[in-house]
């Protein structure tokens, strides 16, 4: 078959395999479909997170007229926060539906197999995500939550409002991340031989590590608490973002050789 007649999905699958040292494994239509749906689901998830962050920014900057009373200001902020809660629920639902989309494609690929291979050891979070990345993810969410609560407790009303937005956003992101990781860890193996077992496990590892990059957590302060002006608290947020990015890079470099 000439290069011109090879379907795009098969070419992408071949490149994916070659990039992971599995050039000897033949690309199959099932693998092509699984890689395609993951690529599209990641784009859709990125768009959903971007929309969510824009909405958080709009909630944060939306202000009533300067002559509004304290009661009007409080009521307006309450309505905005209720809208933000609805957006959080919509984000979690969207991420869950995207995971279900990926699962359905995996299920169809599994149904097309003449036989099913059982993984010798059920993949768990240690082999899929790794201790270092799991600890990094938990620490990142914990540190962001501590900073948000500190802003909520000790700063003025404007900064506290931004901190409330931050806490609500973090809760939504934490739930969405947990649901996505649960899906990656619990989905059935789609394989019919040793090579496809390796491919399935590598795909699971990449899915988990993609979910575990806390890009939205780093972006939340930019669209919420930074709007209150730069001060010692916001410098702490900047330090948190820089340090966590450096930590992720260090973990990625340290675990690169052991990914396979």
TrEMBL record:
Q: Where are the transmembrane segments?
A: 43-62, 74-98, 134-154, 160-179, 211-229, 235-256
Q: Which UniProt keywords apply?
A: Membrane, Transmembrane, Transmembrane helix
Name of the protein described by the UniProt record: Uncharacterized protein
């Amino acid at each position: 078959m000439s290069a011109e007649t090879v379907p795009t999905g098969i070419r992408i699958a071949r490149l994916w395999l070659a990039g992971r040292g599995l050039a000897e494994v033949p690309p199959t239509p099932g693998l092509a479909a699984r890689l395609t749906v993951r690529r599209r689901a990641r784009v859709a998830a990125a768009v959903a997170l971007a929309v969510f962050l824009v909405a958080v920014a709009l909630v944060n900057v939306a202000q009533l007229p300067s002559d509004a009373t304290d009661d009007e200001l409080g009521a307006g902020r309450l309505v905005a926060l209720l809208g933000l809660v609805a957006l959080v629920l919509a984000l979690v639902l969207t991420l869950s539906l995207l995971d279900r989309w990926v699962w359905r494609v995996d299920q169809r690929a599994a149904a097309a197999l003449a036989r099913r291979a059982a993984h010798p050891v059920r993949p768990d979070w240690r082999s899929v995500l790794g201790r270092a990345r799991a600890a990094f993810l938990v620490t990142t969410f914990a540190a962001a939550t501590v900073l948000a609560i500190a802003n909520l407790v000790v700063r003025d009303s404007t900064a506290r409002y931004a901190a409330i937005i931050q806490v609500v956003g973090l809760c939504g992101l934490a739930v969405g991340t947990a649901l996505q990781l649960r899906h990656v860890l619990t989905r059935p193996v789609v394989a019919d031989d040793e090579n496809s077992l390796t491919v399935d496990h590598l795909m699971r590892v990449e899915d988990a590590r993609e979910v575990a990059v806390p890009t939205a957590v780093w972006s939340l302060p930019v669209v919420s608490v930074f709007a209150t002006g730069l001060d010692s608290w916001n410098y702490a947020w900047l330090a948190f973002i820089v340090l966590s990015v450096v930590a992720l890079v260090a973990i990625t470099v340290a675990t690169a050789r052991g990914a396979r």
